[in-house]
Amino acid sequence: MAFTVVNGWTVPGFTHERELGDGVAGRVVLAVDDLTSTKVAIKYLDGALRVDEGFLTRFRAVARGLSQLEDPNVVDLYDFVETADGAAVVMQFVEGVSLRRMLAAQGPTGPLAALSMLGGTLLGLAAVHEHDPIVHGALRPANIMIDGEGNARLTDFATARPGTEAQFGPAYAAPELWDGAPATVASDLYAATAVFYECLTGRPPYAGRNMARLHREAPIPAEEVPGPLRDLIHRGLAKEAAWRPASAADYLAALEDAAVSAYGPSWEAQGRGRLTELAAQAARQPEPPKPRSSRSSGLNPVVAARRAAEQRGSRAPWIVAAVTVLIVAVAGAGAATLLKDDKKQPAEPTTAQSSTPRPTPPAGGVDPGPLVAKIDRAVAASPGAVFNYRQSGCCGFPASGKGTLSLGPGGESSFSLTLAGAGSTRKPVRALIVQNRLYVRAGKRWKSSPLGGRGYPAAADQVRQGSSVTNLTLLLRSATVLKTRTGAIYEGSAPVRTLSRAPGVGPMYARMAQDTGVNEITFAIKLDAGHRPVKFWVRAGAEKGRNQLLRGSYTRWGRKPAVQVPASAS
Predict the structure, then answer these.
(1) Confidence of residue 84 (pLDDT cuts 50, 70, 90)
(2) Would the pLDDT of 170 be above 90?
(3) C-alpha–C-alpha distance, residues 540 and 111, integer Å
């Protein structure tokens, strides 16, 4: 069924189903691609934007960059369609609710869900900010979607005309935007922090008639948030852009450190679970009324909608979420894992599934042999993934990497990644790892060095070892305790004496044990329905105190082209 959207014009090749919303940049409809039957969301740009050539020139460049980006925390942009009759953005349709709707229906999220939301937002911003000069410009709860798995997904990039960003979201606009400065990475981080503050308290940091003065001069109200999170608020809402974190990746590292210190390594699983639950509850409640325009008054749309709902007495009692979230205890540690259950689970392996006699399974009852075999077959069929990895803890341990890995014969991995470490290697660099060598981009050339030693080669070696699938299967095979309550999340512990003898990763575990004084390593690994790893964490030491932690995730498993030695390497 087609219907009039903007002056009677609709994007050809799509059948419209219903209107999804009407924002300051234009109306959004749910549509179906007539050729593929894929559901999409189409934003029809407001007439004032369609005749602004300066805006269109900038947005075309942004659209080209976004169309090449695939990130789980960013809504995919498929196409930007322009004709003499109209302009529209065709993008991914996300099953979920906006953060604006969730806050209006549910109020404050609590610290763990707020941290999970901010973490996802920063991951999305980090991915987009790599595509210079793309910034969001007017981030606010209305353009953060929470999907059915608790992911925060960003949309509506650069839909505010330059110079008008503060009017699009006055409650979240950085001080410099009110002075007419262009939107930057720093202003995006300010807006993300203001949204984070609202998740914690139920209201944005500033509200009143003179929003510009409040953002420029009012004290940062950090005392209203939990103590362990106040430093994040102070850093993100700093009045001067130079005082804020240098990048979304830097801010995310500070967030993870604060979250683990305050709530333990299971904070992400608990936060994502709570965010999923709140979004599911909000989806079952009636859509809140559209708030009045906030451009002149400075009144936050979320607060206005929530106040209207409260006046009608429409806030429903909290009920059990439709999405089941699983929190399981880590063996011997008493801490919940960071991994949420999937809807479709592979069958739990038992000794009865093996055709030959096997030794007694480790405590917990899971036989690692058949499980590891399934993982190996699954990964061999899809030998590559997008990965994100981070090491943290005591003793000069930090290192991080994110990018693409490709598995060759024998499980040897090659990487194309952004790499960072600690101290002098804290600055992220573009790097490749091929055949035990690191290649770092330096201008137009690549500098090569063997893995190990100090600096970036040492950080690269740690990332390669810790994020490898062979490391995860080693943990499973070596476990003296291995259990599952879902058939998708496996948790257990393995002795250091066994792990430290393993080829490749053995020295890493020996060093972790020496630094922390432990004899066992605890771990949790989540698999998808096809037995491919999707998330893991590994810890040496107690949940709180002197410890070292490895965390990682994998997405978009499939065949990836092998990473090649760059032609300009020296």
Answers:
(1) confident
(2) yes
(3) 26
